[in-house]
Amino acid sequence: MTDDGKPPRTLAEINHRFVGRALATGKVAANALRLASRRVLSRDDVGVYAAIGENLARELDGMKGMAMKVGQILSYLEGALPPETHAALEVLQKGATPVAFSSLVPVIESALGAPIEALFESIDPIAIAAASIGQVHRARFAGADVAVKIQYPDVRATFESDLSRLDRLAGLASIATAVDGRALVEELRARILEECDYVREAKSQRAFASRLAGDPEIAIPEVFSERSAQTVLTSRFVEGLDFQRFCASSGAERKNAVAITLVRASHHCFFALGAINADPHPGNYVFPADGRVVFLDFGCVRRFEPGYVERDRHLARVVCDGDRARFREALLATGIVARPSRFDFDRHWELLRHQYRPYIEPSFRFTPAYLQALVDYGRPNEPNLRLLAIPPEWIWQQRLVSGLHAILTRLDAEGPFRETFRAALEAPLVPLELR
After folding, report:
1. Is the CB of residue 182 less than 8 Å from the CB of residue 174?
2. 3-state DSSP call for residue 239?
3. Strands (E), 48-186
4. What is the pLDDT of residue 409?
5. Which helix H or strand E contains 415, and what residues bound it?
6. CA 349, 354, 358, 361 torsion: positive or negative?
7. Where are the domains of the chain?
8. Beta bridge partners of 129
9. pLDDT tens digits, 183-216
10. Could you read off the pLDDT of 73-109 as tens digits, one per residue?
11. Hey, what CATH topology would domain 98-153+197-237 get?
């Protein structure tokens, strides 16, 4: 049974939801846009906002796949939707309606080549998390508590279907803009299809664990290769609080310490490893009693060419140092400006100085007002929007930063983030390798 007393969905029910995906996704977008515009006009619709959020959560959770992934992103990006809607969408961070375990047993047995009774000493048929691509069950293997992530059957095909629709729209999105819509869709396709490859995810998880092993505040669960395959990933289970319970039960000092750890990990990975876990939603962290932060889910990993990292490192130094004279050259080097003759460099300087404020000021507190100001820079009337080239890699980097800052705002975090960021900024780059 699920948390609301309803039975798990069968695969037939899940697949039925995929049929109307294009229409449903359009409704989601329309609701999001309507809420984003209305939220500044009225605060009398709290009940309506919550109800719409609950409805979106139910629909997106039932559809799984890309639709649920969109909902997960919306659930933590503060400022994009009213707070009541964000709260209702939080359920998507772990998933609410799992697929019936009996439908997933064939996936496990086919992937690992043996009956399930021979593979695990025990496995709980009740899912502990149900996400966009697969769901997680607690089990016992070789005397250890493990978490077994099982991919939904045919989810890869549903992603391909979604992406083909996006590809048709991408050409229209490129008209009268400098954005290569099809290049962005191809980038999205590559990352999403990589998420469907649990062998690759296992390699990424082991690689990050190896490179971050020296940080006593960070933990990444061990992968059990003997019980992992293309559609099944088994990792050591770590007991701890989820993000919502952690926020509700922890004091300011503990939250601030976690915030420093999240900032250090996120920026160190980009500047020192040239790779990021580009899916920083709250459901991907666990907070055990020993004070560490456990990082989960390495399916959406983006690696960057060294040249890209070094150009961004230079731009970050220029912005954080307040070196306005070198800004134009540093920004142009990134390739993000498509039409320099019409581009408002002063406006973009103002934007980046605001985005980097947590790393400029000696101490900074993340607030909804800070995030809302960033959202305001992206309004449709923003003069630079149609003059940006937006390299595909940039999308994931910004997703990491915006997601990180949204999480820090939820923590009401305050601290000397400048020191932590500067240490990451000065770290030598040794690219992450998957083996």
Report:
1. yes
2. coil
3. 122-123, 129-130, 134-141, 144-151
4. 95
5. strand 414-415
6. positive
7. 11-93, 98-153+197-237, 155-193, 240-435
8. 136
9. 777 777 788 888 899 999 999 999 999 999 999 9
10. 555 455 445 555 555 555 555 555 788 999 999 999 9
11. Phosphorylase Kinase; domain 1 (3.30.200)
CB atoms within 10 A of CB 328: 17
Name the residue type at position 250: S
CA-based radius of gyration for the chain: 22
Identify whether the C-beta of residue 13 lies closer than 8 Å to the C-beta of residue 20: no
Phi, psi of 259 (to 5 degrees): -60, -45
CA 184 distance to own-chain centroid: 17
CA distance 421 to 406: 17
Residue 283 DSSP code? G
Provide the phi-psi class of 392: left if phi over 0, else alpha when psi is between -120 and 50, else beta.
alpha
Give kind and range of the element (H or E) at residue 168: helix 155-174
Assign 389 to helix, strand or coil.
Answer: coil
Q: Kindly provide the residue ranges of all beta strands, DSSP E only, lying in 370-413, ordered along the sequence.
A: none
pTM here?
A: 0.78
Backbone angles phi, psi at 110, to 5 degrees: -70, -40
